[in-house]
Write a structure and sequence with these properties.
By secondary structure, the chain is α+β, with helices and mostly antiparallel strands. It has two domains: about 170 residues, Beta-Lactamase; about 55 residues, Orthogonal Bundle (Arc Repressor Mutant, subunit A). The protein has a five-stranded antiparallel β-sheet. β4 and β5 form a beta hairpin. The protein starts with a helix and ends in an 8-residue tail after the last helix.
Length: about 240
């Protein structure tokens, strides 16, 4: 799979201006990554209704209705732990299962959610939080391989989908705030300089420059320095350096 595909999708997410884009995006992710379902749950999305969750998924209406009728949100470990965790959660980490939690996963499989599951938490700057969840029907070995190969894609997508939800349904001023040093490093990268050349120009160590670039990529949810530069320029973050 080409990294160009991911950059193209991220660009589309940035330019999306209505909620229906979520459905099209999730269907494409299912096709490209060989998934069974995709779901996004966000809290604190709206400044007007911060307690109202925002949920969109490819789950069947029948499963969503059953999940709500059984009150599974109160026992679902993905929700209960995921909103507090920082690292991705493989649903197999919850084994062995018993009681209501076991019933939840057994019934989820019966409703076609898939035998593998992964949830990626996202924590925003204003107390907003989200879970980006995917499921698949592949074998354990294939799932392990897919996680190793595409985990970065899934994490970057989670961050960008949450940013899209904030933009479409929120009201937060979520313009990325890069530090002066991060912007300086990106500006020199934009001029074609290497990390080593940046370090000489700025009088910093190479490792320090790389740390600034990594931080900038994280804040911009970029997959590479080139992608970070493109996003920073588009957001007019490099026009002036404080």
């Amino acid at each position: 799979m080409s990294g160009d595909w991911l950059i193209e999708v991220l660009s589309e997410i940035e330019e999306s201006n209505h909620s229906l884009d979520f459905t099209s995006l999730f269907e494409r992710l299912i096709d490209v990554y060989g998934l069974r379902t995709v779901a996004y749950l966000g809290t604190g999305i709206s400044t007007d209704r911060p307690d109202e969750p925002y949920f969109i998924t490819t789950y069947t209406d029948e499963w969503v209705a059953h999940y709500k009728s059984q009150g599974y949100v109160e026992v679902d470990p993905v929700i209960q732990l995921g909103m507090r965790r920082i690292l991705p959660i493989d649903w197999k980490d919850f084994a062995p299962l018993n009681g209501e939690v076991r019933n939840l996963f057994v019934e989820a499989a019966a409703f076609g959610l898939g035998r593998q599951g992964l949830s990626i938490p996202v924590h925003g700057r204003h107390g907003d939080r989200a879970l980006f969840s995917i499921t698949s029907d592949v074998s354990d070995q294939e799932w392990s391989d897919a996680r190793r190969r595409f985990m970065r894609d899934f994490q970057v997508l989670a961050i960008n989908i949450h940013a899209m939800a904030l933009r479409l349904h929120g009201g937060w001023d979520n313009k990325t705030n890069l530090s002066p040093r991060e912007r300086e490093c990106l500006r020199w990268i934009a001029e074609g300089k290497t990390a080593w050349e940046c370090s000489v120009i700025l009088g910093l160590s190479v490792s320090t420059v790389r740390c600034y670039l990594e931080s900038a990529r994280h804040k911009l949810a970029a997959t590479s320095n080139t992608h970070a530069v493109a996003k920073a320029i588009k957001a007019d973050l490099l026009s002036t350096i404080p």
